[in-house]
Amino acid sequence: MAMKSLRVSLYKLEKVKRAFKLTGLTQNEFASEVDLRTRQPIGNFLAGKPVKHQVFKEICFKLDLDWQEVADLSQDTQPETEQFQDTIFENPNFVGREEAIAHLDMMIDCNAKAIGIYGKGGIGKTTLAYHYLETQKLEYLELQVGMQAQYITSVKSWVNDQLRHQFKEEPQQDFIGTLEQLKRNLQNKPMGILIDNLENALDENGKFKKKHIDYLELFIRVLNAPNIKSITLITSRERLNEAKLSFVEVYQLPELDEIAWQKFFSRFHINVNCPAMSAIHKSYGGNALCMKVLREPIQTKYNGDLEAYWQDNKEFLLKGNIKDLVASQFDRIQDNNIDAYNLLCRLGLYTYQKIPYIPIIGLLCILWDVGEEKKRPIIDSLEQSHLLEFRKERVENISDSWQDIPDLYFRPAQGWIFHLEQLQNEVKLLVFQPAGYSLHKVIWEEANSRLNLSNQSIDYLLFSLKEQVDNLLKSSGKLQSFLNFAYQKQQNLFCNFPYKEVCIRSAYIELTLEIVGNLANEIDPRFELENAGASNFMDMSLSIELDISFEIAQVINGIFTFLYCLEPKSLFWELSNTSDLSEIDFTLEILPGIKRLLTHKLQINPELHEALQYIQSLLPANLEKIGFVRSYLRVYKPELVPSSRKIPMVSLKDVKDICGSQLRESIEEFEKWFEVNGQKWLDQIAEVMSSIPRINIIADWQFSEEERQQLRQYYDANRLLVDCLNSASDEVRSHIEETLLLPIAEIEKRPFKN
């Protein structure tokens, strides 16, 4: 033995290969370390070819393997090895689990006796367990727990069967005696044990149900006995949570990555080089069973055209075995924990589009019919069953490449309105993504379907959710006062606001929380931050900042808009499209706004009124007539407005070319004045407008950190409620929107009338 060439078994070869992966060494690097003298190719060893005895011993020593044990295991004949290799590595249904196998190896090398392989249904837990035990070339005992509650396998019967058929012994009469018999046999012979679908013997807390407590005896008395030589693999959708079974190691099986899906489909001559590949993998969450189920229709009905299949079927994810798999998970939750089942179905209310991760407050609110002490355990049970997914909060770096974009430059006197400095300091480099929960799309489809088929109406569910959300601030007098403050401002300052009034109330909360909110355009789709929506958003924000009416804010913002158009690096430069316009053209657009502001003498700051009067007095005569003619031409001579211009203006040059001599003289007089005084006059307007005193809601209210947190939860919960309203009837939706973000006293004045 010491002088002859050795052939290493496939089992040990695979262990060596995985050892390389775990240590981070390449085969060439390892070869250099092992034998600097002979440079014996390590590839021969890894390929199962003969290598010199000394090299073989050094390799085994480096990997902490007993070379004699390896040699004893290397007596397999070549035909058997080739047959075994074909079985393992050419199985088309097993892909992408190299890391999982390496992880199991590592755990067993660290003396793990029992490993729980956990993961959602269909992810490949059982397939991995079978594959692993077979690659170990171990005989193994298989305990199928059963899929239905009434058919759960009795451990007593299973042990008796193993003793009779596997070990050829007659079992004793008492259960504990048969466990001792099984233990003795496992001490004498290395074996594997597979316990499949253990979740069906567990209750909602991950403990064995009382009628299946014999499983606990099997684990404690046999599987954890000190001298047994068995390796136990347990598959379960839910985590085993028995304090006495802490010796069971945990392995969370991840989803198959997209590369594994590509490899699998390619084996069946399915084209994976298409955009649909990523989309279909993401939609099914890398689920192994879904991958196998989809293969047949793509291959046979669509001749391997994955793109065509996806275009026809992407709206119908639940079908055939996939639907059965998901339905079985829902059925089990329904049988074991009705509160968790209700939560799961109610989560089908949310769409996970604009809000992809639901904050914890969203889950707590839809558990309105459950005591506070039970809510967290219910959420935890769904998470442990892998039906509800949780993502931790995180802060991600984002590209700061936009910092040099010219459009983001503002004059200091004008830029305050956009809080640009705050944006640059707080948002530019980091994006905070809060923690939250979500349902995978396939799970959501089943939840939404069951919710719609339940005997509870969607309108009832939404009213119940609304009540929970409103009650979040009910006990805080200060926060109720703040909601009433926002409501009163909405009534007094926004009588002509063109969108739903709750958009205004949401803006007050967002300003207080110092967030750039999205609630307004979620409530009212017309309120998109583009075109007219952007303009009204700016007017509303300015109205709040200056504590002035919406109408006055519109005029002030109109003046600001045209002042910005004079700055080549401003955000409005694209809007102005000024290649054929001069500052004098924009000046004429500012004048009507100044005149309208001066008519609001009692509603604007006296200093502002006086300053605007002075600025207007500096202008030459006849400007009003010039402005009127320009406006007239814009309407009745639209051909004078270039189609590319987003701000429809007729240039003063065009007016001058077609008007009479008297008006032309007035224009020329104005041009001479503007050449001397125009820039100074415009700078004066910018200074006056940007000096308007602003209120500071945050400083005025001085909320504590706890109150700010309460207000943030309230805001988030209302966003979630709005996200659900597409499922409501028109009457219910209208009523809920009308009473959103109102103080309790005002809500009680508006009962729903059906």
Structural class: mainly alpha
User: What spatial order of strands do you see in the largest sheet?
Assistant: 2-3-4-1-5
Average pLDDT for all residues:
80
The number of helices is 37
Give the fraction of residues assigned to helices: 55-70%
Largest sheet: 5 strands, parallel
**Cα-to-Cα separation, first versus last residue:** 92 Å
E-strand count = 9
Which regions contain 5 or more consecutive residues with pLDDT less than 50? 1-52, 73-89, 398-429
In what range is the share of β-strand residues? 5-15%
Shape: elongated
Compute the CA-based radius of gyration: 37 Å
Report on the architecture of this protein.
- By secondary structure, the protein is mostly helical.
- It is built from 37 helices and nine strands.
- The strands form three sheets. Strands 2-3-4-1-5 form a five-stranded parallel beta sheet, with helices on both faces.
- It starts with 9 loop residues before the first helix and ends in a 6-residue tail after the last helix.
- The model is unreliable at 1-52, 73-89 and 398-429 (pLDDT under 50).
